[in-house]
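On clarity, I found the account of how folds are encoded harder to follow than it need be. For illustration, here is how one protein appears when written out as sequence plus structure tokens:

:::
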Amino acid sequence: MVATRITVNGKETPISPAAPHTTVLDFLRDRGLTGTKEGCAEGECGACSVLVARPGVDKPTDWVAVNACLVPVAALDGQEIVTSEGLATAGAPGSPPTLHPVQQEMAVRGGSQCGYCTPGFICSMAAEYYRPDRGADAADSTDAEHGPNGFDLHALSGNLCRCTGYRPIRDAAFAVGTPTDGDPLARRREQHPPAPATTDHAQGDSVFLRRKTLAETVRLLREQPDAVVLAGSTDWGVEVNIRSRRADRVVAVDRLPELRELRIDPDRIEIGAALTLTEIERRLDGGVPLLAELFPQFASRLIRNGATLGGNLGTGSPIGDSPPALLALEASVVLTDADGEREVPLAEYFTGYRRSVRRPGELIRAVRIPLPLAPVAAFHKIAKRRFDDISSVAVAFALDIQDGIVRKARIGLGGVAATPIRALATEATLEGEPWVAETVDAAARELRGEGTPMSDHRASSLYRSAMLGQSLRKLYARTTEAVSS
């Protein structure tokens, strides 16, 4: 058995004796790298963020910021990470290190007060600093969330600061320049990241497993059908930290090449189940407008850098953000096991609260979206916060309106039943009718009655029902404004 190892700030170090459930955060702090902080242990504050070398979209390698509190260190076997300590450049003997440009701007612009959140901000900021196409965005910087240097503040949406305030942090982000030719982390982008390693990391009765191919993985899952299947760990990591869940067997699928393809064919788009949401967003580049509206509202950039469509569907949560959009897009899931694969319409995939037709030992390999896409699309997420929050209600629309008549309507709902659902009665009310206020009002009344919304700490059932109806009226207002303008 090959020993598990990870490269931290350029130095290779063994993962043992860390347990299979040990997070990257705890692993680093146990080794004196205390810049990585624990704030929430749920991926909501960003104090723990670190940089990971991942396969790039525009270059061989991208530096990607992730929540170290959620990722098991065994999941980074053979991989390469950089912490806030590793960004500075060592000085001459007896001299202090030279600050990284991001660190320097945070210091001179007053972006740090108590300093607890600062290392996490710096790692998230550094990931955006090294984004290869950032400079190209500068000419399009026309709003308050994009700087004249092309810096996208959404890169910091998963980082919280409770004392400095965000203005000086924003000032620092908008002041950073571009990497110099001699920047070692910039040069590192020109080389491919380490290939995924075959991993058997065990301690006691627990083991973390990774195989290099899909065929090997599904054979493993046939032998271990009760194993926890892990991709971005944005859900399982919370279970480990907050609920002290442990698993005897964890099988990682996030680096399987067969689950990381994105293909656009004449009749469909196929998205690999292990591509992160950030990778999907950048590769589609707005090509699926409904998903383009969904992605900025899905948690934070830090979460989207790890979360996958396969993971979001695999948990079966009724409040996952992607299922309503995928239902409206009439998507299907490709399920695979050691016997072969099958395709299931997403509308038939969910069978109950956190239950689905996926059998033990079966994986979600891909999500398929049929083409052509509906010309009118929208994703409405009703939540207490604009970003990085769980929805009270999520509504996705995909409508085909021709000559003022609704030819086809598909509406996906989340947060109003034990599973994500299609609003079938509302769809029927709309189809074949003129897209006018009277039709919309009748359909909105129908939409209010879809599902079985409950009352909880996020919203009452009456509020959820009211928001369903209002979401359709909001869509109508948007489409009529677009026509009149």
Notes: The longest strand covers residues 393-402. DSSP finds 16 helices and 20 strands in the chain.
